[in-house]
Amino acid sequence: MAETILLTLRRLNRLIALLVGVLLMGCAAFVLADIVLRQIGSSLGGTDEISGYVMAIATAWGMGYTLIELGHVRIDLLRSRAGSRARAFFDLAAMLALSMTVTMIAIKGWPVLARSLKNNSHANTPLETPLALVQAPWFAGWIWFALVAWATFAAAVMLLARGKFTESEAAIGTFGELDALK
């Protein structure tokens, strides 16, 4: 069961990473087109605003992928000197803290989106972008990150309950510099 959860999350997050990559490439093409147009005396306008929105959305959606790929930064001074059981404890504590933090961010993100929807809020910029248009995918990315974090935590607990310390470490451990040298 735990392995299925982790495999499904990995597959879904790779697909999401590809979609986010396409979004970022589209944004880069948009900025490049604006730069070229500026050279001939014209402009699309709003590239700074739009690229900021794209970065916020890409970051929110990319964090779940980064979690699954063990890409989040963690200080592992104590963990690296510990045995497998202690490492499992540190890993679970870190995942629990991350899951709770991300959940709190997602919960606090909803009132922001709800207020924008209620007030039909627009950006105070020349584009007057409807804020809910940007905040909805940003908020959804945080929800996804929270779901991925809790599902990964649950899978690790299942693995540890079966004594699979190596598999749990592969799911929620760290990928440090020492690991890269091995």
TrEMBL record:
Domain of life (superkingdom): Bacteria
Cell membrane as UniProt keyword: yes
Self-association and partners: The complex comprises the extracytoplasmic solute receptor protein and the two transmembrane proteins.
Transmembrane segments: 12-38, 50-68, 88-107, 139-161
The UniProt record lists the keyword Transmembrane: yes
Major localisation: membrane
Family indicated by similarity: Belongs to the TRAP transporter small permease family.
A GO term, aspect molecular function: transmembrane transporter activity
Role this protein plays: Part of the tripartite ATP-independent periplasmic (TRAP) transport system.
Protein name per the record: TRAP transporter small permease protein
Cellular component GO terms, alphabetical: plasma membrane
InterPro entries noted in UniProt: DctQ, TRAP_DctQ
Species per Swiss-Prot/TrEMBL record: Maliponia aquimaris
UniProtKB keywords: Cell inner membrane, Cell membrane, Membrane, Transmembrane, Transmembrane helix, Transport
PANTHER family in alphabetical order: 2,3-DIKETO-L-GULONATE TRAP TRANSPORTER SMALL PERMEASE PROTEIN YIAM (PTHR35011)
Domain Tripartite ATP-independent periplasmic transporters DctQ component: 29-154
Record membrane topology: Multi-pass membrane protein
